[in-house]
Write a structure and sequence with these properties.
CATH class of the largest domain: Alpha Beta
Number of strands: 11
CATH architecture of the largest domain: 3-Layer(aba) Sandwich
CATH topology of the largest domain: Rossmann fold
Largest sheet: 7 strands, mixed
Order of helices and strands: EHEHEHEHEHEHEHEHEHEEHH
Helix content: 40-55%
Length: about 325
C-alpha cells in the first residue's frame, strides 16, 4: 500500500457533541505523522462540490469545547448516486487526497463503505452519533453528552410533574435504538422507558403506567424513543382515553439534545478515536471504524459496524422495572 501523504476529513449526517474534538485529534495526529490535512466542508456534499481547504494545527485550536462541527454537515442525496460518487472521487484525486476519514453515524459509514469498494480508497470511520447504535463499539461520540442533557431536562420536568401531579411523556431521539431513552430513564429516576427494543408493544402502557400509577404514584415520568407512529403524543392520547382521571403532558426535547459543549467523556473518547484513526492508517488499515471496547481501541470493519441493530442489554430494562416500583 502506498504511503499516505494527505488525508481528507469530513463530518456527515446529524451533528453530535464531540465531533470538533475528533476533528482536532485527527488533524493534529496526522500532522504529527507528517501527513497533510484537507478539510472537507458540508460532508459528502462538500466532497462532491469540491468544498475542500487545507487545514493546519491553527485551524483546530480552541475547538475541543465546542458543540456541533466546524466543518458543517449535510445529508447528501447526490453522493448516493454513482455520478455523485464519481465527482467526489475526481475531487479527491484533484486535491491529492490519499485517504478519507469520515465522522458520522450509520448512513455516513455505509456511504464510506460503498465509496471505498467502488474506488479502492482507504476510508476510516469514527462513530459520531448521539444514538450509540453502531456495532463493535461500546460508545459513540456525542452519546454521553446527550444522555446528560436529557437527564438535566427530565430533572427540571419532574419538578413540574410533582407540583401538579401530572404524567409527563418525554420524547427523546433514538427512533431505531433505545439507548438514550432507557439509560436516561435510569439516570433521572423515571418510572418507565418505552423503547423500540421492547417487544411488548402497546402493552407497555398498561404495564408501566397503569399498574405503576394505580399502585402508589400520582405523578410519573416516562421516556419515549421518538417514533412516527408510537411516539410520546400517541401514548399521551392513550392515557387520556384509557385513564381520563390523570393529567397528562408531553415534552418533546427535539434538537435540544444535539447541542451543547461535549462532556469530558466525549472529549476524551473523540480524542482517542481521532488519534486511533491516524494510527490505523499508518498500520495499513482501511475500511474500518475506530471503536472502543472494554476501554481499548478496536478496528471494526464497516460491514460489521452497520450490519444490524446493536443489542440493548435486557439487564437495563429489568433494572428500570425494579427501580421504578
Amino acid at each position: 500500500m502506498p504511503k499516505i501523504k494527505t488525508i481528507g476529513i469530513l463530518t456527515s449526517g446529524g451533528d453530535s457533541p464531540g465531533m470538533n474534538a475528533a476533528i482536532r485529534a485527527v488533524t493534529r495526529a496526522a500532522i504529527a505523522n507528517d501527513m497533510k490535512v484537507k478539510a472537507i466542508y458540508r460532508g459528502y456534499d462538500g466532497l462532491v462540490n469540491n468544498e475542500i481547504k487545507d487545514f493546519t494545527t491553527e485551524n483546530v485550536s480552541n475547538i475541543i469545547q465546542r458543540g456541533g462541527t466546524i466543518l458543517k454537515t449535510a445529508r447528501s442525496k447526490e453522493f448516493t448516486t454513482e455520478e455523485g460518487r464519481r465527482k467526489a472521487h475526481d475531487n479527491m484525486v484533484a486535491n491529492n487526497i490519499d485517504a478519507l476519514i469520515v465522522i458520522g453515524g450509520n448512513g455516513s459509514l455505509t456511504g464510506a463503505r460503498i465509496f471505498a469498494e467502488e474506488y479502492d480508497v482507504p476510508c476510516i470511520g469514527l462513530p459520531g452519533t448521539i444514538d450509540n447504535d453502531l456495532n463493535g463499539t461500546d460508545l459513540t461520540i456525542g452519546y454521553d453528552t446527550t444522555l446528560n442533557t436529557i437527564m438535566e431536562c427530565v430533572d427540571k420536568i419532574r419538578d413540574t410533574a410533582n407540583s401538579h401531579e401530572r404524567i409527563f411523556f418525554v420524547e427523546v431521539m433514538g427512533r431505531d435504538a433505545g439507548f438514550l431513552a432507557q439509560n436516561s430513564a435510569i439516570a433521572a429516576g423515571a418510572e418507565a422507558a418505552i423503547i423500540p427494543e421492547d417487544s411488548t408493544g402497546a402493552d407497555q402502557l398498561e404495564m408501566f403506567i397503569g399498574h405503576g400509577i394505580r399502585k402508589s404514584k400520582k405523578s410519573c415520568i416516562v421516556l419515549v424513543s421518538e417514533s412516527p407512529k408510537c411516539g410520546a403524543m400517541y401514548y399521551a392520547e392513550r392515557v387520556k382515553r384509557e385513564y381520563p382521571e390523570y393529567d397528562v403532558r408531553v415534552s418533546i426535547l427535539g434538537h435540544l439534545q444535539r447541542g451543547g459543549s461535549p462532556s469530558a467523556q466525549d472529549r476524551i473518547l473523540a480524542s482517542r478515536l481521532g488519534v486511533g484513526a491516524i494510527q490505523a492508517l499508518t498500520e495499513g488499515q482501511r475500511n474500518v471504524m475506530i471503536g472502543i471496547r472494554n476501554d481499548e481501541i478496536v478496528y471494526v470493519p464497516f460491514s460489521n459496524a452497520v450490519k444490524s441493530d446493536k443489542p440493548l442489554k435486557k439487564e437495563l430494562i429489568n433494572a428500570l422495572a425494579v427501580l421504578s416500583t
